[in-house]
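Note to self: keep these together.
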Amino acid sequence: MERSEKKVALVTGGSRGIGAAIVRKLAAKGILVAFTYAKSQKESDTLVNEIGKDGQDVLAIQADSANATAIVQAIQQVISTFGRIDILVNNAGIYIGKAFEEHTWEDYEQIMAVNVRAQYVAALEAVKYLPNGGRIINIGSNMAENALSPQTTLYTMSKSALTGFTRGLARDLGTKGITVNVVQPGPIDTDMNPADTELADLLRSRMALPDYGTGADIAGLVYFLASDDGKYITGTALTIDGGLNA
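Structure:
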């Protein structure tokens, strides 16, 4: 194993949507990128081939974020492949929407495992290797501060927990020169929240900028935080939602 001279990033849940946009952005900026995916082998292969055509190296790792051991192993694979990790982007997340009285304990366990525990486990493992100047960037949601509609209780709770985790971890890691922030997207045109639905029309009517964002919008903010320009920002939740929460 030779230690890379370039910075290395791991993006969880990086095969599609916002995660894939972040992978593309970081790779385009000359960062060596690894990403995890749970089941979407075809989408993962497509992304690897796309980035490879641009002359960039990218590593795809199959790892379900609901499995804590798989997350640890993914970080170990990054270290064994590149010899380092400089940037951890905790992007993987799921949504379970149903009336509260229909919730089950299993729903709670599932959403907290992916949306909260996976970020905790990844940070706990990555901090063993992150250097001074390292970055942890969590991807949350504007719903951490605004439960926009019914049937969002579990999701809102999980994203609020992620905000608290970010603040505490920033305090813990500040003396090591590692910054920790959470990016809170609002309406972004993805498979999970497409821009051509009745819900999308309702959200646009409540936004200061009445249009959906793109994965590239989120990726740009993530790269800023990962770059030297973001070195003095930590413990902060940055909401990027077209003014929906304004």
